[in-house]
Amino acid sequence: MAAAVASSSPPAAITCRAAVAWGPGQPLVMEEVEVAPPGPMEIRVKVVSTSVCRSDVTAWQSKAQPDLFPRVFGHEASGVVESVGEGVTEFHVGDPVLTVFIGECKSCKHCVSGKSNMCQKLGLERRGVMHSDQKTRFSVKGKPVYHYCAVSSFSEYTVVHSGCAVKVSPTVPMDRVCLLSCGVSAGLGAAWNVANVSQGSSVAIFGLGTVGLSVAQGAKLRGASKIIGVDTNPEKEEKGKAFGVTDFINPDALTEPVQQVIKRITDGGADYSFECVGDTGIVSTALQSCSDGWGVTVTLGVPKTNPEVSAHYGFLLTGRTLKGSLFGGWRPKSDLPSLVDKYADKEIQVDDLVTHDIAFGDINKSLELMLENKCLRCVIHMPQ
User: Alpha-carbon Rg of the chain, whole angstroms?
Assistant: First the structure.
């Protein structure tokens, strides 16, 4: 059920369809949900396209927080502003936007530091509510429905804080640029901002999904001479080459530890390694694959189990560095527009990461494809 075009009167609650998760790993159910009006400094967005990120699947399967159901997942999305809340001056009805799972208030200690993208007011939201009032904007028959990352784009309409949205040009394809609101940006930023990959360097990437391939692309654009892709799926070899991978290793086909192979073909270890799987055990392997003295390991993946990282202190004592990366270090409002421009100018690849285009009504198919490792990104198209 579509909402009426917003007018000068205050926005009212609307009813639309959303794919609701009622329990961990349970198929999403198309429900009629009520979406509340945007509160102060919030906007309500008509979702145009949303892609399924691995972290959506990980959180959907998780039994660690069973109280956060029913829930609307999704965070990698593009849409059009349908209405604005009190105090919003940056956005107007009809503006095309990207949603982002971390915001930028531009006034907190982290935002003004220039050293971090971890906004203290609009950081990663883990409790399934809005930043502003710790309440939800979704309900089904009066029952509250939780959010995911304060975005929840598996819905025809959603409400986000205005600090968690970025205006984009109306000329960019909304069904492709949505990938920049998480996965592609995370990979490029890990290579450029967090590791600062240098010309002529060697790089090892564990996991060649959307994020890993974007790391490879970023390393290639920085002039890395050797980019090693590590993945247990042999089909990723050809895909990796298209994004800059020069050497491919399938750990399942080895008779020795993968870190030994990497150290041998890089003459002592890679200059940079990236963990893009979401496996804390691989963090240690990536660290061991780095060079003594200056090797940098960046971890990007969201762990499915065992969130604790374990590594021998000797790897750090000998000069290796282990770093974490959230959204590639990008500050959403300050930095994301430049990435959109690079995409528009064909300086970065995005389109080739979309392996499936799926109608909203078939969203469960995209989850199945992700679980079966048969896709990179499924783009979900909302009814228009």
Answer: 21
DSSP character string of 269-327: -BSEEEE-SS-HHHHHHHHHTBPTTT-EEEE----SS-------HHHHHTT-EEEE-SG
Band (pLDDT 50/70/90 cuts) for residue 308 is confident
Q: Which residues contact 13 (CB under 8 A, 6 or more apart)?
A: 34, 35, 36, 37
Residue 54 DSSP class: H
Cα distance between residue 93 and residue 3, in whole Å: 13
The tokens 């531009």 sit on which residue?
A: 106
**At what angle are helices 363-371 and 54-61 packed, to 10 degrees?**
90
Distances (CA, A) of 286 to 16, 272, 275, 311: 45, 9, 6, 10
DSSP state string for 162-197? GGGEEE--TTS-HHHHGGGGTHHHHHHHIIIIIS--
Averaged confidence pLDDT in the chain: 94
Q: What is the pLDDT of residues 121-167, one digit of tens each?
A: 999 999 999 999 999 999 999 999 999 999 999 999 999 999 999 99
Between the alpha carbon of residue 130 and those of residues 41, 65, 146, 233, 341, the distances in Å are 11, 17, 9, 38, 30
* Residues near 322 by beta carbon (within 8 Å), at least 6 away in sequence: 283, 287, 297, 299, 309, 311, 316
67 half-sphere exposure, CB direction, 13 A CA radius: 4
